[in-house]
Every structure is written in structure tokens, then in C-alpha cells.
Amino acid sequence: MKRLTVRTPKGAALKMDDTYPNKAAAREDLMRRYRIAVERLAAYEDIGLMPEEIIAPISSLNIPLTLEDLLEMDGEPVWVCDFCGTHGGYMLVSVCGGGCIDYAEIAYFTDFGKEWLAYRRRPEK
Q1: What is the bridge-based pairing of β-strands 88-94 and 99-101?
Q2: Rounded mean pLDDT of 69-78?
Q3: Does 20 have pLDDT greater than 70?
Q4: Higher confidence at residue 44 or residue 115?
């Protein structure tokens, strides 16, 4: 999807910067963007769901975590497994330890995505 806006570091939405040769061109572009926004709003309303009804199923998906996710989960348990999913178990994320650890092993962040993946919970078979 092509974004019509950008978010500031504090989360405020702004229209993307464009340069226009004159006011008429700026006005025309504003109206074009307005029509697109209204179409997107109508498409959303056609679904008939509230935002929380859409977000809940998405957040319950058990997709592989990213390295960025792991770095924000210091001290939390995650399911770590090889790419085949044949070997795995719960480990604790240890940012200062450089990976995910359990009582006997460490899965190093430097090997993440190459040798192992992590999930919020054990993947269903």
C-alpha cells in the first residue's frame, strides 16, 4: 500500500511533503488524496468490524519473531527451534547474554535467522 502520510517520532500523522508548482496543483492533489482517503474509509466501514476486532486475531498469530522483537523481550520466555521445527524448547531472552538461554544452551543472536527462529509460544503442528 502506498502511504499518504508519515508518522513523526512521537506518533503524529503528517501529510507527506510534496512540492507544487502552484496553488491549483496543490489543491488538485489535496482533493485527489481526500477522495482516496474517503474510499479507504468506505472500504473499512464495508467490513463491518471495529479496529479491535481486526487487531485481536492478527496479534494472536504465532509468527516468527524478529530480532527487533527479541531485543525488546529481555527476560521473557520464547519458543526457540531450528528451521525444521523438529528441535525446540522454551528459552529466556537475555539481551546482555547475547541470545536466548536455558539451563544448558544458548542460542546466539548472531545466529538468529540462520540457524534458529523464535516464537512467542510453541508452534502448532
Answers
A1: antiparallel
A2: 93
A3: no
A4: 115
Of the chain, the end-to-end C-alpha distance in Å amounts to 32
Q: Is 15 helix (H, G, I), strand (E, B) or coil?
A: strand
pTM: 0.54
Instruction: Tell me the DSSP string of 64-112.
Output: PPPHHHHHT-TT-EEEEE-TTSSSEEEEEEETTTTEEE-SS-EEEGGGB
What phi and psi, each to the nearest 5 degrees, are found at residue 6? Answer: -130, 155
Helix (H, G, I), strand (E, B) or coil at 119: strand
Residue 59: all three cell numbers together? 496479534
Cα dist from 34 to 1, 4, 104, whole Å: 16, 10, 58
How many C-beta atoms surround the C-beta of residue 50 within 10 A? Answer: 9
For residues 108 and 67, what is the distance between their CA atoms, to the nearest angstrom? 11
